[in-house]
Write a structure and sequence with these properties.
246 residues, two-stranded antiparallel sheet, globular, binds iron/sulfur cluster
């Protein structure tokens, strides 16, 4: 099976896993836990996702995240390219507000009292009650509406509060010059067909990245779509210290 078919199959599997996994990623459950001084699995996952990003970029977004998967499934309905740019900063604001509330709640609770990975996920299964189903449909409904209105992965660009933590991990790897997964390109082979740009689920101008010989983007989710579509094999994955990067 070709790599992008494997990726899309994995994304569908992770959508189907949502009834189990949803609360393991829930920022609301994180805050509910903090109110009682409890570190939940969703808070642990924020830390784990940043560590994964340090070594492998935003591979979670491109290959695993059910929220990202729902948005990609909707590409046939609306695959308009999203603007990004300064609007990408919206998610940093959301993450900072969430982090401030989280810290306030932990301080109010007297600090960290316990680490309970299954807090709020009794039996390890997320969707068990009518309230949990309501939360599921509100969260998924918002992502679906955003995608139908705006286009390619708008929630990843503007709304995901996990993304800034992963971007921090990924950025730290480039700054510390530690070996990590990233894209490289040989611009001398590029014929400017722009297939890479057209295929990018994050609406990045990949052709311009190739031409500038800087393949780093905070918004790249390491999906490999550009790697796989390029007819001249210009772009490749590399696990090494990166060269020229932002
Ligand atoms: S798909 Fe390959 S050849 Fe075409 S513009 Fe992108 S990098 Fe260049
Ligand atoms: S630049 Fe390439 S690897 Fe990164 S998100 Fe776009 S298509 Fe995927």
């Amino acid at each position: 099976m070709k790599r992008q078919n494997i990726r899309k199959t994995l994304l569908v599997i992770f959508i189907l896993s949502l009834p189990i996994t949803m609360f393991y990623l829930s920022p609301l459950l994180t805050l509910q836990g903090a109110l009682r001084g409890i570190v939940t699995s969703s808070l642990l996952f924020v830390v784990i996702s940043a560590i994964i990003a340090f070594f492998a970029g935003r591979i979670f977004c491109g290959w695993i995240c059910p929220g990202g998967a729902v948005q990609e499934v909707l590409f046939p309905a609306n695959d308009r390219r999203v603007v990004g740019g300064k609007y990408d900063f919206i998610k940093y604001g959301i993450a900072m507000i969430w982090l401030a509330i989280l810290m306030f709640l932990f301080v109010k609770a007297g600090g960290i009292m316990a680490i309970k990975p299954l807090y709020g996920i009794e039996g390890g299964f997320s969707l068990r009650t009518s309230t949990s189903y309501l939360m599921f449909y509100i969260a998924m409904g918002a992502i679906v509406i955003l995608s139908l209105l705006i286009g390619r992965r708008p929630f990843c660009h503007y709304g995901c509060l996990l993304a800034p933590f992963m971007i921090a991990g990924k950025w730290a790897a480039t700054k510390t010059k530690m070996p990590h997964l990233h894209l490289e390109a040989d611009s001398s082979k590029c014929i400017d067909c722009k297939l890479c740009t057209k295929s990018c689920p994050m609406s990045l101008d990949v052709n311009a990245m190739v031409r500038s010989e800087n393949m780093y983007s905070h918004e790249c989710i390491s999906c490999g779509a550009c790697v796989d579509i390029c007819p001249r094999k210009v772009i490749s994955y590399s696990f090494s210290k990166a060269g020229k990067q932002a």
